Amino acid sequence: DTAVSQTPKYLVTQMGNDKSIKCEQNLGHDTMYWYKQDSKKFLKIMFSYNNKELIINETVPNRFSPKSPDKAHLNLHINSLELGDSAVYFCASSPTMTGDNEQFFGPGTRLTVL
Amino acid sequence: DQQVKQNSPSLSVQEGRISILNCDYTNSMFDYFLWYKKYPAEGPTFLISISSIKDKNEDGRFTVFLNKSAKHLSLHIVPSQPGDSAVYFCAAPGGTSYGKLTFGQGTILTVHP
């Protein structure tokens, strides 16, 4: 029983393409997040959603568009992929959006843009 | 501006000894801290946390110490085991109620048998 799952695990694509990463959590949590881990291994927040509503948009380019069809899913669509988008993307969830909640992470999606 | 810093990229320890991982922060608004452990090709998993009203929190082999005046926290693992070999991140909620976690850059712990 995977708590937070992401698909695909690996994604290799050409510059300029559009791609999506899917995330699902079966924990009944209200809040979901997308994080990016870059080549220097920093984990940085991109977005958070609470009950399908956007809460945090951390100055991410407009080419990145999150979509939350329901509170168990938070997908990430990326348009016009660039070389600098190559990274590992982690989805996470937490019971609520208050800061003292433990966040549960998915296994990550390694995106490589050629 | 890196508000959470882990200045040691790596640490190597013998099995059975103590591992001490350090973390410094600059934002005095942080009032809660978490440690996450990450194995290769997996997502981070929560390990232990501490509220700023405490200076110590213990869970089995893991203890986190918080020194607010120094804006410093440390994770002690005693005794260290080879299975503890992983990347350890400290993190703090971003000073708002929205749950944004600000992570340090991680420390790679290697525990040798």
Q: Mind sketching the topology for me?
A:
The complex is a heterodimer of chains A (114) and B (113).
Chain A lengths: L3 E4 L2 E4 L5 E7 L5 E7 L5 E8 L2 E5 L6 E7 L2 E6 L8 E8 L9 E2 L3 E5 L1
Parallel strand pairs in A: 2-11
Antiparallel strand pairs in A: 1-3, 3-8, 4-5, 4-9, 5-6, 7-8, 9-10, 9-11
Chain B lengths: L3 E2 L4 E5 L4 E7 L6 E7 L6 E7 L4 E4 L2 E6 L4 E6 L8 E8 L7 E3 L3 E6 L1
Parallel strand pairs in B: 2-11
Antiparallel strand pairs in B: 1-3, 3-8, 4-5, 4-9, 6-7, 7-8, 9-10, 9-11
Describe what this molecule looks like in 3D.
The complex is a heterodimer of chains A (114) and B (113). With 114 residues, chain A is mainly beta. Helix content of chain A is 0%, strand content 55%. In chain A, strands 2, 4, 5, 6, 9, 10 and 11 form a 7-stranded mixed β-sheet that branches. In chain A, strand 5 and strand 6 (53-57) form a beta hairpin. In chain B, the strands form 2 sheets. In chain B, strands 2, 4, 5, 9, 10 and 11 form a 6-stranded mixed β-sheet that branches. Chain B has a 5-stranded antiparallel β-sheet with strand order 1-3-8-7-6, with no helix packed on it. In chain B, a hairpin with a 7-residue loop joins strand 9 and strand 10 (101-103). Chain B is globular, with a radius of gyration of 13 Å. Chain B starts with a strand and ends with a strand. At the A-B interface, strand 5, strand 9 and strand 10 of A face strand 4, strand 5, strand 9 and strand 10 of B.
